[in-house]
């Protein structure tokens, strides 16, 4: 640390007494996210009120100290990691949740946990749809920074679709309000949506006004088996053509299912071992759900080989357990999982699955795939053993090929995780030089000293050259 | 025109033969929008294919020539007017519409007309909800530039909520794709949403991928009379509290209704002359609509003094005619209508109406108000005679006071029209200096030569010092 940075840190301690930590445990905890690469900050600021952020940024901007905001650290891409040291800005303390049930608007601190908002909204008959799989841990600030998705996007959209207003601080410590808790707002340039998904590179959000919906009265869940991925994904396309409007539409390929069946020693659909699976949720009024269910079962009678319905919440939970088992059991194949979150047009999903099978043969590594087939958002995994340099090399080559295929199919390299560090190598596949230059010019305009989450999105980074740390994180299932 | 600009124009003519016009009629047509201030361009470029835009911008950027994109010119704020001369870029020729009924995505040219997309979507059982009142004329590019709203926002949101991907050209003529026709996309900074609502100041959109919804099977319309604005707006708040989810919820104050009743010589609700009115649409499956209708009528029995239902499309059209008559009849009060599109929190609407009545007394000018009460988005009008300098001065003072009141109530100065020229004087009421500087830094980053729609949003402009032209525009009803 330079003398100037040390002075700035001393000044920070004076201004935010009891909120600045430099001990090893605090710095290690703030050094990682779910990508599990560790880069320790010089200090961790545990924010206790929004204005702390302004104080920290004012100093940081003056002394050109990197600042990396973080929530729960569940980012899959390294976006919450203080790559260039400096100060980690821990926003978990800003965890307030207030709900206006008339306006159907929640005002939340950046550190409020997604599942907490959901349960408080439900208690009032309301509904906050975005549901990233780590929702019991993730903060809403983190969800906003990454524009998080989840399973209900097919009907309800992503985090962005629920953000009305953001409050926070610009790089120089000036406070901002972009958008307000209103249903319509078109005054000036829309920096609100620019900040959403910007992974803490443009400003620091301290609170948000979020739109809530009336809670659906009823939900129904069904699970359908198909002979092949092709027939399952053909059914997905036909389903939309026929006007169905499911609230969840999840897909599991035969590799994922086979893996779970070997791992548990149980066949999911008796007599149909290693099927490809669709898991479907319908919601609405009881009458609507009844009508939708009938239409769906009639439709599926033409194409699925077996099905199972949940007639209670507990039975539905059992069906969702199948999805989770598939995800967990993959670690019986190898110790390391590359989890990509690519998106392709709906009718190109079958082609993408064919490509994952071709890739499997080519690189000799398993490529189990599941995900949000109603959005074209598939989690393609490549499983490999970290200690094997050959496997790591093959996995790396495989991912690059996969990403190029996705772009060639008219898709995008990330649908809900963001870029962070992990996806930097693929940015030039997705975006032209002019597009990247335009993005970077905006970054420089809002953060001229380059202090906000430096090293992310834009700068070259080879994720493969860094060794992940072995650490148990709260959301680890195994 | 300078010699350099003349050379650039000659070069443009060679590169875009038959698409560059400098005759008086073309320049006049491109000199105005619905604000009716006229600023003639040096030339009009009638774009026939997207790449024309790149050609024009490359030249314009090199020679620092102002470029003002326009669609139908129905903007209410002057955002489509070439204030600083230069080239008007007429995008109406890019009017293609393609619909993928499976993915529920429309790909449209910037010049495609909103109502055309709606009718083509409906023919396929689909639905494009944004419905600005000028939808028979407005282009989708213009809707995107202004993030247009309309009546169905209360349930279905605004234009932004339907934009998946944008294609177009940056200020220097480089092509861009921001977003793709996919349901999820989080790669890089979100310049797509930054462009939406930026009124042509950051880049020129040539085509867009728009999300479509399944078309609601059934609609129902009802009209309710209230003793006062306060009781009507109290009902609006209570309605949401009770969990109703109307697809339209329009409000008319007693000034608007009284004006229509005097103008037509007919009372809208027999025995309840000069009522305040709510116009409500419900939509969904027939079963849902039936259930909603019953709940709504039960609810309204407690607070409305009279009601009327539409049992057919034609009957519904008759109810909507009431809304249109109110709007048109205002011109019987005075020749000039200031139409503001402010938004306040739902529970503050009654207070805003009280303020419009206070203002009416204070300035001695009528302040009839109607609008989208489900969004808190009210069109407050001040009616005055243009030839009277006293009235104009009073109207100007009144609007400034109104805007300050709106901001004080936690609202926004514009909910669906945008800033353009007309709202520039109120920008500093809404946004802090730091927020405005952040917006302007983004503008400068993406348009360093300042050629795109110069003079709008950021530069001082006193709309009152300019005389509107008397011209008949396609959407004029009187």
Q: Any overview of this molecule?
A:
Two copies of one chain form a homodimer. The first copy, chain A, is built from 15 helices and 19 strands. Chain A is of the alpha+beta class and 478 residues long. Among the domains of chain A are: 1-215, Uridine Diphospho-n-acetylenolpyruvylglucosamine Reductase, domain 3, CATH 3.30.465.10; 216-331, 2-Layer Sandwich (Alpha-Beta Plaits), CATH 3.30.70. In chain A, the strands form four sheets. In chain A, strands 12, 13, 14, 15, 16, 17, 18 and 19 form an eight-stranded antiparallel sheet that branches. Chain A has a five-stranded antiparallel sheet with strand order 5-6-10-8-9. In chain A, a hairpin with a 5-residue loop joins strand 8 (163-169) and strand 9 (175-178). In chain A, helix 1 runs antiparallel to helix 3 (50-63) and helix 9 (254-264) crosses helix 11. Chain A starts with a helix and ends in a 32-residue tail after the last helix. At the A-B interface, strand 9, helix 7, helix 8, helix 10 and helix 15 of A face strand 9, helix 7, helix 8, helix 10 and helix 15 of B. Chains A, B: Keywords: FAD, Flavoprotein, Oxidoreductase. Chains A, B: InterPro entries: FAD-bd_oxidored_4_C, FAD-bd_PCMH, FAD-bd_PCMH-like_sf, FAD-bd_PCMH_sub2, FAD-linked_Oxase-like_C, FAD-linked_OxidoTrans_Type4, Oxid_FAD_bind_N, Vanillyl_alc_oxidase_C-sub2. Chains A, B: Its cofactor is FAD.
